[in-house]
Amino acid sequence: MKDAPLRVLITGAGGQLGKALIAAAPAGAVVRSVIHAELDIADPAAVAVVFRDLAPQLVLNAAAFTAVDDAQRSPGAAQRTNATGPEVLAAACATAGAWLTHVSTDYVFDGAQSRPYGTGAKPQPLNVYGHTKLAGETAVLEQLAQASTVVRASWLYSAHGGFAARMLALMQSRPQLSVVADQVGVPTSAHGLAQVLWSLSARRAMGLWHWCDSGVASWYDFAVAIAETAVDLKLLPAAPAITPIASADYPTAAARPPYSVLDKRATEKLLGITAPHWRSALRTTLGELAHA
Length: 292
Ligand SMILES: NC(=O)c1ccc[n+]([C@@H]2O[C@H](COP(=O)([O-])OP(=O)(O)OC[C@H]3O[C@@H](n4cnc5c(N)ncnc54)[C@H](OP(=O)(O)O)[C@@H]3O)[C@@H](O)[C@H]2O)c1
Description:
The chain has helices spanning 16-23, 44-54, 68-73, 75-96, 128-143, 162-173, 190-202, 219-232, 265-271, 278-290, and strands at 6-11, 29-34, 58-61, 99-105, 148-153, 156-157, 176-180, 184-185, 188-189, 207-211, 217-218, 241-245, 259-260. The chain is built from 10 helices and 13 strands. It is of the alpha/beta class. NADP nicotinamide-adenine-dinucleotide phosphate binds next to helix 1, helix 4 and strand 4.
């Protein structure tokens, strides 16, 4: 007998990860994706209506307040989406008997360590965004311990969002850019993360997991690679001059961790995969724009 299709709800579907999750949906899943304007995940009544309509068996939550500096200025709004939202989804999943796969961030750590952060490392967020994301992942893991997957990821980008898309847009108009060189992390393809989220969900991998691409880079290294790759793919006529600067020379509302590398080996082992090096994933991602 053929298995009945899995009913899946994707929240925050208008964001870069939401779009990647829709694109990576496996055959055999009936996907309903909702953008922010269609569903506010922090509104229990609205969530109840969507759950009644779809009766999802799996919820992939890609909704978040991701503007790190804005979160510092509007902590209430960040808390509502990043902490209350996952709590509301977890409660709805508990009632419906659905699995919740939720995404968190490397910014739960302070970056004082100099080796990759495992899932057992103590979170110590430096900013409001990190605090609210930590509250969200804790709510999911506590309320839905037996029926949730929480994946922390780092430095997400896609052809349509995140740092790579922002840099490419700036590089079209500016001959010179300055980029922070003393924050180190791992640029991670939203498309690759989406595949990992589908795979972990299919296995009902309970608890906390880490995911990022391989290698390490500063934002400056990432920007230089974006420029080089874009020129190579003829997305830019010439690379702009890029100057490395210190975080202190580029003051922001929110402090950021100087070292933001996640230990993803347990996820690789469970899924039997090796994360691609961030440079090759970047080339694949920008290649989408070149061939569009
Ligand atoms: N971006 C990164 O570098 C990064 C790094 C590590 C982890 N993450 C995590 O990865 C996940 C996906 O991030 P992303 O990069 O795809 O973010 P994104 O592009 O900013 O997308 C987030 C989406 O959530 C929506 N949203 C905001 N508040 C909402 C609410 N209350 N209800 C429903 N939808 C809401 C946003 O809609 P509006 O824009 O219309 O408000 C947006 O479409 C998040 O959990 C994020 O914390 C991101």
